[in-house]
Fold this sequence. Notes:
By secondary structure, this protein is mostly helical. The chain has helices at about 5-25, 30-50, 60-75, 75-90, 100-110, 115-125, 130-150, 150-155, 160-170, 170-175, 180-200, 215-229.
Amino acid sequence: MNLPWGTLVNAASVIAGSLAGLALRGRFPDRVRAVVMTALGLATLVIGLQMALKMDNPLIVIFSLILGGAAGTLCDLEGRFERLGETAKKLMRSRDGLFTEGLVTASLIYCVGSMAILGSIEDGLRGDPTILYTKSVLDGFASVAMASTFGVGALFAFVPVALYQGAMTMAAFAVKDYATVHVMTELSAVGGTLIAGIGINLLGLAKLPISNLLPALAAAVVLARFVAG
Length: 229
């Protein structure tokens, strides 16, 4: 198998965009950063809702979120991610109070979504990284806003991007029989719902434990396959 070029380019775009955002961070007054965060939150919310509303079966989305949320809470994924972020912060000797929040938030935005999943599968099955190249452009611009707001923590989101998408690309051959149109539709809907939740968090409307809901993605695949029969 060839190198997962789509993922490598995507990780590089996050690094480049984040470095640009860090360079601009100190030049923005607080009110400008607040507006940038609001704009990013609104855009994330709209994108998530657009994906979620394409669902074919609302019950699959509902039960996926319930089952996935229960599993994620029992495993304390939210706490594990926060502790991982704190560990990375200590290793980097960063004093940025937003390091962990930036790492977790940026990682979820870049990794949870249909483009990450579909792009990785396309790159693995067909050797076509076009979707991931397109995602790289979007993530590059988003990372400028993320890093200028959250700081260096957002930069290190390139690590989960590389690991997550790279693993999916290399595992694509093993899951190709499950990647039907129906499954991908419901998976995208659940992913969109999680992205909408991230948008709500970015807007400061609530503090939703999105990390605990990540197993809903796996639940969506199983339920969609079961319903498809």
